UniProtKB/TrEMBL annotation:
Gene that specifies this protein: SLC18A1
Protein name: Chromaffin granule amine transporter isoform X3
Transmembrane segments: 159-181, 187-207, 219-239, 245-266, 287-307, 327-347, 354-374, 386-406, 413-432, 438-466
NCBIfam families: 2_A_01_02
Keyword hit for Protein transport: no
Domain (Major facilitator superfamily (MFS) profile): residue spans on this chain: 60-471
Homology family: Belongs to the major facilitator superfamily. Vesicular transporter family.
GO terms under biological process: aminergic neurotransmitter loading into synaptic vesicle
Presence of keyword Membrane: yes
Keywords: Cytoplasmic vesicle, Glycoprotein, Membrane, Neurotransmitter transport, Synapse, Transmembrane, Transmembrane helix, Transport
Length: 500
């Protein structure tokens, strides 16, 4: 077995599977889409015409036909009946000419906050379906990608994923309607499927030792966390001050650099099929231990998946948050996820990955229950930080366990099992946003958080069954000969449990 240091270039490129460009592409959309649709499609009763930031205000102010103007920059409504104020007063926001029945300054923010409430409630459904379209497409494509990687290897599918993601990013930059955004998001799901399944499978095949594999996957998931960390704040700030195309065009440039690295390091023109035939995906789906691990990935990530479309809209309704805050709200989750994946990629192997995942799901549930208690963006720091850290615990524990279960109970070919892992991940991101918007519309955002939080807490005890999964008889003999470090894996098997 080659030294770990010699494999680092391959793993580094593999980390790009879910690394910065891919992860940032996903989260750039989170703060941009709700506000973009709101700005382009909302027609409020008190708004006679949309006023883009930077428009020439004096001409508008001297036009008596306008009774009020809604500013998307700071979420304020200006009533300008016959006003003759100067341009400086408009730009500085130092006046608000009121109608004869005028509204006091103290009540203005609340009225502005409720501007377009009905539209925002309906937008929950549309934004949720838009976000879910990526995960739904991944669900459909993943099984085929798993079979493809078993036949031709991991390098070509990874590069194909890069090409598709690049096209999707450019399409996002120039999409001006909901339909085009939906198509771009769907295309993004196809690219993500190729990149994630091939990348994780490549890491599992290169790092055969369980300890090294956990560390490598922790680094790869840290690449995802870095993309998430930069994506949402970067997207919201660029959209606020530069415009919608800017963040996606910059991201497309980064994706080109990632593609160049893949060409240099991975040589994706080479076909490298697996030496042995992998276990059929239907056989893996009948393995109860793989299903428990997949369920843990699904429900833990469903928490943040539900927040992506619903939290920004809830903040717009209840906190009157400007656009740049909608992305920054996810910053604590991103930072803590980065810490959690890198820390528990190594630590989980020592404390037991089943225990790490169990604790993580309990913390996910508790954090979600605390989100509706926030009164402003600062109140979201604790819940979102705990949520990101806990999901990092679950992901960095369950991803290596999936490969370990295949080594222990099936043939050591990893394309199909990571197709299952990615399907589980995507189910969370498909079911979460698509149903979350409907639930918010029916019973409200706080009850949505209660439902998904309780589900995570209730599921957590099932992780105990991963404490000491039994090996198949023939695999036990092979592992005793080829893997003398068995005692490092999740502790010694003092007793074997039959989980039906």
């Amino acid at each position: 077995m080659a030294e770990g240091g010699k494999r680092v270039p391959k793993a580094g490129a593999g980390g790009g599977i879910c690394g910065t460009p891919a992860g940032q592409h996903v989260t750039d959309c989170v703060p941009i889409v709700p506000t973009f649709l709101y700005a382009t499609e909302f027609k409020g009763a008190s708004v006679s015409e949309t006023l883009p930031f930077g428009s020439s205000a004096p001409g508008i102010l001297h036009n008596a036909d306008f009774s009020s103007i809604f500013s998307y920059f700071d979420n304020t409504t200006m009533v300008v009946k016959g006003s003759k104020h100067s341009e400086n007063e408009w730009m500085n926001g130092t006046f608000s000419t009121l109608s004869p029945q005028g509204i006091g300054p103290s009540s203005a923010p609340r009225n502005n906050c409720l501007q377009g409430t009905e539209f925002l409630e309906e937008e929950n459904l549309r934004v949720g379906l838009l976000f879910a379209s990526k995960a739904i497409m991944q669900l459909l494509i993943n099984p085929f990608v798993g079979l493809l990687t078993n036949r031709i290897g991991y390098h070509i599918p990874m590069f194909a994923g890069f090409v598709i993601m690049f096209l999707s990013t450019v399409m996002f930059a120039f999409s001006g309607t909901y339909t085009l955004l939906f198509l771009a998001r769907t295309l993004q799901g196809i690219g993500s499927s190729f990149s994630s399944v091939a990348g994780l499978g490549m890491l599992a095949s290169v790092y055969t030792d369980d300890y090294e594999r956990g560390s490598a996957m922790g680094i790869a998931l840290g690449g995802l966390a870095l993309g998430v960390l930069v994506g949402a704040p970067f997207g919201s700030l660029m959209y606020e001050f530069v415009g919608k195309p800017a963040p996606f065009l910059i991201l497309a440039l980064l994706a080109l650099m990632d593609g160049a690295l893949q060409l240099c390091i991975l040589q994706p023109s080479k076909i490298c099929p697996e030496s042995s035939k992998g276990t059929p995906i239907l056989t893996l789906l009948r393995d109860p231990y793989i299903l428990v691990a997949a369920g843990s990935l699904c429900f833990a990530n469903m928490g943040v998946a539900i927040l992506e479309p619903t939290l920004p809209i809830w903040m717009m309704q209840t906190m009157c948050s400007p656009k740049w805050q909608l992305g920054l709200a996810f910053l604590p989750a991103s930072v803590s996820y980065l810490i959690g994946t890198n820390l528990f990629g190594v630590l989980a192997n020592k404390m037991g990955r089943w225990l790490c995942s169990l604790i993580g799901m309990l913390v996910v549930g508790t954090s979600l229950l605390c989100v509706p208690l926030a009164q402003n963006i600062f109140g979201l720091i604790g819940p979102n930080g705990g949520l990101g850290f806990a999901i990092g615990m679950v992901d960095s524990s369950m991803m290596p366990i999936m490969a370990h279960l295949v080594d222990l109970r099936h043939t050591s070919v990893y394309g199909s099992v990571y197709a299952i892992a990615d399907v589980a991940f995507c189910m969370g991101f498909a079911i979460g946003p698509s149903t979350g918007g409907a639930i918010v519309h029916a019973i409200g955002f706080p009850w949505l958080m209660v439902i998904i939080g309780v589900i995570n807490i209730a599921y957590a005890p099932l992780c105990y069954y991963l404490r000491s999964p039994p090996a198949k008889a023939e695999k036990t003999a092979i592992l005793n000969q080829e893997c003398p470090m068995e005692t490092k894996i999740h502790g010694m098997q003092k007793s074997q449990r039959n989980f039906l």
